[in-house]
Fold this sequence. Notes:
The structure holds 2 protein chains of 2 kinds. Chain A is an alpha+beta fold. Chain A folds into 2 domains: 185 residues, no CATH class; 194 residues, no CATH class. Chain A contains 13 helices and 14 strands. In chain A, the strands form 3 sheets. Chain A has a 6-stranded mixed beta barrel with strand order 5-6-11-8-10-9. Chain A has a two-stranded antiparallel sheet with strand order 2-3. Chain B is α/β, with parallel strands linked by helices. A 6-stranded mixed β-sheet of chain B has the order 6-7-8-3-9-10, with helices on both faces. Chain A: One of its GO terms (cellular component) is plasma membrane. Chain A: It is found in: Cell membrane.
Amino acid sequence: MLKAMLGEAWLAMGANRLRTALTMLGMVIGVGAVVIMMAIGQGAQYAVQQTISTMGSNLYIVLSGSFTTSGVRSGSAGGPTLNVADADAISELDGVTNVAPTHQGTRQLVYGSQNWSSTVVGTTPSYLEARAWSIVNGAGFGDSDVRSSTRVAIIGKTVAENLFGADDPVGKTMRIQQNPFIVIGVLGSKGQNLDGRDQDDTVIIPLTTAQRKVFGTPFLGSVRMIMVQAESADAMAKVESGMTALLRQRHRLREGMPDDFFMRNLSAAAESEAATTRTMSILLGAIASISLLVGGIGIMNIMLVSVTERTREIGIRMAIGARQKDILSQFLLEAVMISFAGCLLGLVLGLGIALGINAFTGMVIVISGSAALVAFAVAATVGIFFGWYPARKAARLDPIEALRYQ
Amino acid sequence: MTDAVIRVVGLGKSYETAAGLFPALKGVDLAIQPGEYLAIMGPSGSGKSTFMNLLGCLDTPTVGDYFLAGENVAHMDKDALAILRNRTLGFVFQGFNLLPRMSLQDNVALPLVYAGFDKETRRAKARELLGKVGLSQYADSLPNRISGGQQQRVAIARALVNEPRLILADEPTGNLDSHTSEEIMKLFDELNREGITIVLVTHEQDIAEHAKRQVKFLDGQVVSDHLTERQGLPC
């Protein structure tokens, strides 16, 4: 029975090929648009997630805060209100896994005849752990290097390429501010951060060396920034309130006095960025779905025309014993077949265009099976939904009237 | 009387019109026995088409009872009527009413699709019936490839394919020339000789002469019901 009906639906579709093709085109464009938009949206989400994962997870940065001297207020990180002892105290807090006091600035690097300006970060070994940053060539420095202010440096990929070119940087000596530093390691690549800055354009040296030899701080032991990593996303709120209480106590701030430090939740910023892309991706999908809806209305339109045109045929079928549900399923099947065929073509077209976009613009696209499945399910639903009304109209025809129809 | 293929008792049908209720059929009583060959006659507006639609289970009566093969079908629902049309009745129309996109074989087999037979059975039965009406060679052709008379033969094959209790033919020769009409009528005559019950609607006396019994309608009532005096004579 079903096979016979499929054959008949096929015949009916073939009876007016141009019309069937044009009806299908609506579905092709609809499904194609959904597939492309989902691919681009998910691609953007993927790109953001990649960036976030390079930043490190559950991170806080604590910046030394503004202070007021004779009514003049400095901005954030304006004064030396944080120090290494604060960092040590924070590391004792419950839920904190890594604490890295840092001091950074831009300095000119020189190696042989080459020179390059880069961000120099003075910090402790915890910094690399907090940011989940691995060393691909050579080794890192240890706490003993920080204690004895050794002149060793770990460089990012961009620095290695620009300063050393084809040479292996490990073991070579470069100069920062006239001070020779031995390159002991090269960092793995992290790419751009959320602001679009190149994270690989950096040099990491022991904190004490940076303070004494590179930046020359007036208050020994003071730092501009402390990076703090919580053990989990759930622990972040606890760590934040713990740090605030601890720092206020250590800085002897009385009730009512403002904090002399700033705390930023990097993960929260990243999450909001991810949420933005997710929203964008949903929006794109929703807009594309509208074209699917329009395609569905096209199917309904043509099915209604088809029912009217074939009124006599319906009458004949009823006279020789077709029940209402036979007629209903016949027209429904036709609508679903058009919808499905359009969907298949749309999938192929959408995938082709998405891959083309990727090939020509380098935009990240993600093609997921679930997106294709969703498009397919929607197409079937659209076919049934918009095929239902015309099919029911056909099934409810009065056989006598239908037979008399010319 | 219980053996009758068709027995109608006080069958009436009224239509709603702008001028009020219009009685198209006013209390008809009629019985048709198995193997009968009956012609229903009457001018247009006499109620014969309404009667035919009721006999064909395409419509339900306003009043009265209709026993088809012993079963009262007067108040059955649409799907039950569809099953009756499929299993118990065979239709032959004035306009042949073959489906234009289907091969003749598929046209003949269509009632079997709705009866739920498998493909092989459908094929075999359709072939057999096409052979019976002498059109086996056109089995895979489309209806527009053959003449009107041949199309009507195919329609008769389609009406017979489900082995119905009776054949209802509504002006079966109305669209054919006299020579072809004669051929079609001979086919009906032959079928009746084989024992098939046939009810024929026509307004042509010479066509009606083929039947063994003639029922005349006027103003929604049966006005005459008599056996044909002479039969089997070519006109």
